Amino acid sequence: MDINAKVFAAFQSENKEQLEAIRAIMGKTPKSGDDAFNEALRLAHTMKAGARVCGLEGIQELAHRLETLFTHIRDSTLAADGEAGAVITSSLDAIEDAMASASKGEPLADMTMALGSIDRLLQPPAAAPKRPTRESTRQRVLLAFQSEQQEHLAGLRSTLEKAAHGALNEVELNEMLRLAHTLKGGARISGLPPIETLSHRLESIFARVKSGALSFDPAVMETVNLTLNAIEDWMAALAAGKTPAEPSQAFEALTNLLGPDGGAIATQVSPAEAAPSVSAPATAAGQFDTVRLNAEHLDRLLRSSGQLVTESLRQDQVSRALAELSHDIDEIDREWESVREVSAAHLHRLSATPEFTRVLHYLEFVERQARIISRQARQVHALQQRSSRSVRVLGQELQENVRKARMMPAEGVFGVFRKMVRDVAKDENKRIEFRVTGLEVQADRMVLQALKDPVMHMLRNAISHGIETNGQRKLAGKAEVGCVSLQIEAVGNRLTIRVDDDGRGLDLSRIAEVGVRKGLLTPADASTRSPEELSALIFQPGFSTAKAITDLSGRGMGLSVVYEAVSRLQGEVRTAPKAGPGMCLVISVPLSISTHRLLLVSSQGQTFAVPSSGIQRLIRIKLTDVETVEGKPLVVWENQSVPLVSLAQVLGIGGGSEFAVEGTQLSVMILKSGTRRLAVAVDAFLAEREAIIKNLDGPVADISVLGGGIMLEDGSVALVLNTGELIETFKPVYAPPIAKTGETTLEEKVSTVLVVDDSFTARTLEKSILEVHGFNVIVAIDGSEALSKLRSEEIDLVISDIQMPRMDGLTLLQEMKKDERFARLPVILVTSMNRAADQERGLALGADAYLVKQRFDHQNLLDTIKQLL
User: pTM of the full predicted structure?
Assistant: First the structure.
């Protein structure tokens, strides 16, 4: 089980106790000023801290309000009357309901009513909300049209792409007429006359094309694209709160094409032709009715389908348990048969004895019941197997249908890049021809959204860094108009995005120079690295070859942002060689993040999941085949020397640098990232699995080599490894020992840390973090128990909360300083109380460090421990 799962399980158990304790206090009907509210206050405070650790914001906020409420009642500034009791009871019920939702993986139940009830007790009721005004209604209509017009423009551009490669059929022309007509109607409702006029004239062009008066020749295509760009720019300015500029260039082009009347031919087209009904018989085959669906609901449905599949897999354990039960019952039956045959004569003689008649009847009853139970067990097992198979099939079908529902054309997200490229080119005073292909490619909505900013960075870099100024292009003998292209392609289950330009390309000598200056390369490395290895440096944070900082370049953040975003998607980004001038960047990510094919492996008793897309080969190698070059272990695979490392070493768990050996062989994954390879040894290959990768929260979310988690059949969580980051962060070590059968290795002394906190959740979090990083951890629930542990155990460092029952952290620190045995032990105080007085008192008593839970950072804690030890 990973840290997050253990922490949540701890808080779940602790929360039940806290709720019961507060209910018990309220059941005694205490009065305002009663000391019982001190305990209620402490319980609410601990509950708030635990909820914060688990990322349960709704419960954290409600516990905080309860804490405030108990403070007012304790201080007699608020009456502990029936109304206050009812509010407290309903708040506790709301927390209980929210925890039930969280335990099922569902969103937290709504806390609005409970929070509002406490607020009404603590302060005067808020003024009644104002009724919607005409202005607010218009704003809602504009927001709706803003979203709608983006879809209409995307649809028109998609059809225009087809027109550029051949004639359109009647259905496609009707669809263009319908989109322009709908765009015009929406603009009229929203009170946007310029958009209405531009849409009307677009409708006129499409009507003339349909009648044969016009064709989609280059001039018409240019005018239509200019008009679509004008609509997009006008709406973008409006959304930004700016006054849109008059689209005079588009109006002039439309007038030149259609004449001064602006396209009166549109009135000759029947309404049925201009906007064909979706229910008309002429609807194209393959078109379906569509509905708008909240993306959050779709994501929730996907998570639920994933949990259903996981639950169906868990039924395999139930099936095995039923099979074992059936087998055990059959064993009992067979054993009884054997005993009965041997004892038949004795039982027959005993049947004549009245005192044994009851015993014989009981044995016959047991025999009959055993056979009935055996038959029922087999029937239940068969029924469970059929039900389990049906649930698995239905779960997988639901998951696949949701996955398909999440797919959308790239145009919906990447269509905005046309305007962005125009704006950037204008700012840079460069003439750019922007070519886009593959916008019709379908991909997971979340993948496209996650790639939107990275691709934007790549395009901006291509214009700013890549394309030369007009004068430079003339001197280089290039066309004055630079070319930037965006190519989107789906191959198998991978989405590939290429950003290509015909600019100056990479200056490898300049990259090597900056790499040496930043300490990423030695001068010797700079002269021996391959072009691929040198070009990989541009993805390093803060790396820039620009000699001047502008609004678009020179800070070195763009491509590192690309690398980080792509890594989070279990993908890779690299430079690709090209025949002509310029540069080509390639992103490769999974087409969908709804499900991933994963390999489950074990290391140091823990289960990890590795995306199959990052694995090139699984091999078993003999110990004798492991070579050492300059003290570094490696294996030879496909005539290449590949560095060898244990997964435990990379993750820093367990023995760290040891290889686990099955007999005389190592289980090794050959991982790939671009041109780099890494051989990673694990304890065992377990199984393959299709699963949904869930994001990690809390401290482990910042660990770059972890890409998420998946639920296993037994309810535990397996951490998913980010193979690209694993390879990039790997630093070769010298000659790690190989743990062979029958041998023992000398281990370094493990430091023991005493964690003192009355919150079970906080203890679990800190214990899990420290154990993952190799510390031995002992826990205590308050200062009194901590002193007892100090007297009986060998402790190297103490981490203590301040607010605790019986003996608080400051008193514990005071007692430790009085005892010569503990006076020199390092002590770290970790508390949610951020008062300067507490901090000053703690440091005055001799605390070595003081950490605040609101700003709790596991890395800060680890760094502090390392400094003190």
Answer: 0.48
